[in-house]
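Figure caption, in words: inputs first, then the predicted bound structure.
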Amino acid sequence: MKKTGYMLKASMVFALAALVGCGGGKKDATEEESTQTGDEIVLSDAEMEKASSIYFNTCAGCHGTLRLGATGPHLLPEAPEGATAPGTRQLGTAGITAFIMNGTPGGMPDWGKQGVLNDEEINLLARFLQNDPPPIPPFTIDDMRARWKVLIPVEDRPTKPQHDKNWQNFFGVILRDAGQVAIIDGDTKEKISIVKTGFAVHILRSSASGRYFYSIGRDGKVTLIDTWMETPGMVAEGKASFDARSVEVSKYKGPLGDFRDKYLIVGGYTPSHYVVMDALTLEPLKVVNTSGKMLGDGEFLEEARVAAIVSSHKDPLWIVNVKETGMVWLVDYSDLDKIEENTTQIPTAQFLHDGGWDVTGQYFLVAANASNKMVVIDVTNKKLETIIETGIKPHPGRGANVNNSQYGNLWVTGHLGENKITFICTTPGENQWKVVKELELPGSGGGNLFVKTHPKSKYLWADRPLNNDEALAKSVFVIDKESLEVIKTFEAPEKYKGRAVHMEYNKAGDEVWVCIWGVMDKPEENAILVYDDKSLTLKEEITGDWVVTPTGKFNVYNTMNDIY
Ligand code: DHE
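Bound structure (heme D present):
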C-alpha cells in the first residue's frame, strides 16, 4: 500500500477484527486462505485483520465504522430499508472493485488509480465488504486513565516564555504521515521543534491563553505541547478513543467563572463519545456517550460520531456536532457533575461535519454534508436559526468571514462535490441567511476543502486538493473580497508534486501559508509555501528533510481567537 494522501498508515491499535473477533465469515485462526462457499465469502483471520485495518484507515471516515454510511453511502451486505445504494453483495466483488479503483464524481477518491491501494488490497477490501461489519469494542475511562501520562507536571513548567520569540506568531504544522507536529516561528520561518504526536494527526487547537497547542490524531491520541519551553515540546499525552478528529478547550471567562484553559473536550469517532479532560494535565474527567436517536424516524444509532467541536467565547459552552444523528449539542461545562442535564440537543440535518463562527460569535454554521446543507445555530439563544441549501457536499473547514460593501457580512463555504464557493449573508435584514453569491473557480470539478481569510486582508483564499486534475489540485485561488471574483491562481512550482491544502494567515494578516502535501519518501516534493497577501507573490518556500506530508497548519494567535 502506498503511504500517501488521505490514506492512513495501518493503525496499530485498531484492527477491529483482531481486537474483538469478526462478524460473519470468520475462519479458524490456523487457516490462512479465504474461500467462497455458496453466497458466503470467507476471509482468513490474517485477511480479516488486514482488511479491517485498510477499511479503518481509508474508508471508515466517510462510510462509518459500522458501515451504515455518512458522507459516503452505506457499505452493508444487504441494503437497509429505504437506502438508495445497493447492498455490497448485490454489487459483488467486480462492482465494488470498480468504485474503489475509479472513485465517483460525488467525492469518493479513486484509490486504485491514485495508487493508494493496489489490486490485491482492493480485491481484499471488496471481499471484506461483502461480510458483516465487526462490532465496536468499548474504550472506557479506565482505559483512558491507563494511557494517560504527564511528562512535565504543571508546577515544573515555566511561568514565562523561556525564549524571546514572538510565540503568538508560532505556527503548528501537521506532518501527517510522520505522526509529528512542527513548531515554526512565523517571524523567521525557522523550524523551532518537531514534536512526536499521534498517528496521522488531524488538527491542532490552541489553548485560550495561546500558550499550549493540543493535537488530536486519528488514533484518538491527544498531545499537549507547551510553546513556552525553550524548545517547545510535549508535556502530557492521553488517549480518548480508537479514532477521533476533534479537540477544543474551554474559553469562557465571565460572571459564571473563569474557565479559560480549565477543561479540554475530545470528540470520539469510535467509540462515539466525547471526553472531558483537565486542560493542563489531560487527566480524563468525564465520558459522555453520544449514541442516540436519529432525526426523522428516531432509530437508535450506536455509531453517532463526534465531528467538529467549537468553543464559545461568550458562554461556558462547547458546540458538539454529532454526525450521524444530525444533532447539535450545546454542552454547558460550567458544572461537570451536571454536564448531561445542562446540554441542549438541537435536531438539524445529516451528516454533520465541519463548521465555524460567524463574525459576531453568536451564530455557528456547520455543514450537513450529505444533505448538501449548511445549518445555522443561534448559540446565544440555544436554538436552530435556519438551514440553507448550498451545493454538493459543503466542506467549509471553519469557513471564512468576509465583509463586502454591497452585502455586508458574508460567511463562506466551498464544496467537495462541485465547483462552487458559496457566500451566505449573515448581516440582519432581508438578505440574512440567503446565498447572495455563488462563484466558480477556474477549471472544472470540485474538490475544494478549505477557505480562509483574515479581517486585515482584502482577499479570500480557496484550495482544491481533491480535484482529479493534478494542476488544479496543486493550486490555490485568490478571491477579491469586494468583487467576489477570482483574481489570481497560484499553481505550486513544478518541483513540488503534492496537493495544495489548507491555508492559514500569520498573526499580522499579511501572509498566507499553504501546504504542499506530497509523499513521505520524497521530502523534496513537499513544502510549506508562504504567500505575501498584499503583493500576491510567493514569498518563501519552507522545505527540508523534515517537511513531509504537511497538511493543516495553525497560527497561535488566530486559532486562540477564532480568526478566519
Ligand atoms: Fe479533516 C477538520 C473529519 C479528511 C484535514 N476534519 C476536520 C473536522 C472533522 C474532520 C470532523 C472538524 C474538526 C473541528 O473543527 O473540530 N476529515 C474528517 C474526516 O472524517 C475525513 C473526511 C476522512 C477521514 O478519514 O479522516 C477527513 N481531513 C481529511 C483529510 O484528508 C485532510 C485533508 C488531511 C488529513 O489530515 O487527513 C484533512 N481536517 C483537516 C484539517 C482540518 C480538518 C486541516 C482543520 C481545518 C481548520 O482550519 O480548522
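The first strand starts at residue 35 and ends at 37.
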